[in-house]
């Protein structure tokens, strides 16, 4: 695959959006990682932040060190001769997950919508290795994909006011585990006991763009043994 040519869009007085792709695809990530690394190298101390997403990179630079022309020249330099990052350069995570209606109330809904049994829904969701595309929405919230089309389900029309940390859900062809207590409108299938965000984790977030994640089904007893909270969702509202 040919290296992407970024389309530059002004996001602010000191920020650019680098649009590398038009469609979400797991094959984008090696290029996104390679581009991130090269941009960090060429911008060096003039780089304030670099935020990857599904198809774009948000570049925030120090305008006291660079003008707009210099920024565009450095971006061109970063993409010259760019090669994709080696597949598998991110970390791999296995998240034990207790799939159950009490903590995943949309499990039954997905079974009904797809014509599958709840066991089949669990199997299909947990059989795939998901790519972490981006962090956002809440601290440590990792957007992952792509969920197979059969399981793709729209967000809830009315978001819940409070979702427990570790709750695993689906929205369209994305999946995620809520890292902290927060509102949310994703379709919940279960819960993981793994701590996903905290000041005792390097980089604060366990999951980072480029990482790969598997959800591993476990029984309630194992979930609790690993430190999981099995409080039913309705008691948390």
UniProtKB/TrEMBL annotation:
Q: Which Gene3D superfamilies match?
A: 3.30.1360.40, Cyclophilin-like
One GO MF term on file is: transferase activity
> What highest taxon heads this organism's lineage?
Bacteria
Q: Which UniProt keywords apply?
A: ATP-binding, Hydrolase, Nucleotide-binding, Transferase
Q: Entry's InterPro entries?
A: CT_C_D, Cyclophilin-like_dom_sf, PxpB
One Pfam family it belongs to: CT_C_D
All copies of domain Carboxyltransferase, residue ranges: 6-207
Keyword Aminoacyl-tRNA synthetase on this protein? no
The molecule here is called Carboxyltransferase domain-containing protein
Species, as recorded: Pseudomonas berkeleyensis
